[in-house]
Design brief:
Two copies of one chain form a homodimer. By secondary structure, the first copy, chain A, is mainly alpha-helical. Chain A is built from twelve helices and no strands.
Chain lengths: 214, 214
């Protein structure tokens, strides 16, 4: 979504207080991430986001389709999901679990990635709109695309269980702060978790009720 | 923790409005679960819990060590964790993953179990005290005890990663409501997830940097 440029910015926009050349839209998105991360979806206001971005509230409405639209855009991955999926699906199939786990922690361990992840989790847990957005994102994006491209049975359930592992790790590492998971290196996490995602998303033998006899 | 009986209940306790014989302490805990589940830790008040339980607020203070104490007790599993650990550790080691997954979903799929789980997650995500309680619970309880009893390397990290899988599934099934995980039978979830917990908690070969060469 590429909105038209502002036809003329209101006179009371304090652009001078932001570094010259900084894009207004980017400044609003950055402020939205900070606000959603700190307060969650419900308690965040467009007015507060505008104040934080040092722009007139009218500009927020100009660039974004309300609070929900701003939320979706501010929560998006720092790289294009389509590119992410291509990269992950394109490499050797036997390493797809490792590429997924490593890519997620590379994004999440950056301060900006961590901030938007925490905002997403806080919001999805406390707000129905945010939960719906996360549901829809999960149904459409990375894990489901990978499982579908491989052709395992129950691709949507497997995508959900794989996403659950990563969301749970995000909770432990960034939200709850469970020390052993906070201190773990990405290599240690990859070594433990990559085989799990590999199995969920690519191994058709698992999940076929091998445990039915119990 | 078994508190002494109330030495004399205040006169304005409306015991008559609860079924005869219902234990005051149980009524308070039930009300606390309802309140924490609906509002999370911060927004819940002891006064509102007392009103819901139809007891005098002084009785809440008599039976419980403040809001934090009441939270810990109201969030506890419906069965004694020590008994749970014994049951899970006592059986054949090759089935420990399945027993864990099945036991958790048996508890969580009950209306009461689900309510307290959602309350715990909502509170841990939005409140530092609740997050600390969950951290401490995780460090002490089921997953860590199982990993330690088996003697795998990095037992605390493995416990954290196993707990992350289950917390993530709880998010998907009960909080976010991701349809394929909501609709899945316990047997389907066990078939997919039991081998994961089995590997994390009992297989010393995994997590030993098998992926180091990449």
């Amino acid at each position: 979504m590429t909105p038209a440029r502002a036809p003329g910015e209101p006179g009371n926009v304090r652009r001078g207080r932001r570094p010259a050349g900084q894009d207004t839209r980017t400044a609003i998105i950055d402020a939205a991430r900070t606000e959603f991360s700190a307060k969650g979806y419900d308690a965040s206001s467009l007015r507060a986001i505008a104040r934080l971005a040092e722009v007139d509230p009218a500009l927020v409405h100009h660039y974004f389709d309300g609070k929900a639209g701003l939320f979706v855009e501010s929560m998006s991955l720092p790289i294009n999901p389509a590119f992410l999926i291509d990269t992950i699906v394109a490499g050797p199939r036997e390493d797809v679990g490792e590429r997924l786990v490593r890519t997620f922690f590379d994004i999440w361990d950056s301060p900006q990635g961590r901030e938007r992840l925490v905002a997403l989790i806080r919001s999805a847990v406390s707000n129905d709109d945010a939960a719906r957005m996360l549901r829809e994102f999960l149904a459409r994006e990375v894990f489901t695309k990978v499982a579908e491209s491989v052709g395992v049975p129950q691709p949507h359930l497997r995508a959900g269980v794989a996403a659950a592992q990563m969301i749970g790790l995000a909770m432990m590492r960034y939200v709850i702060g469970f020390e052993p998971v906070v201190r773990a290196s990405v290599d240690d996490l990859v070594a433990l978790v990559a085989p799990t995602l590999q199995r969920y998303l690519t191994d058709p033998r698992n999940g076929d009720m091998a445990h039915q006899s119990h």
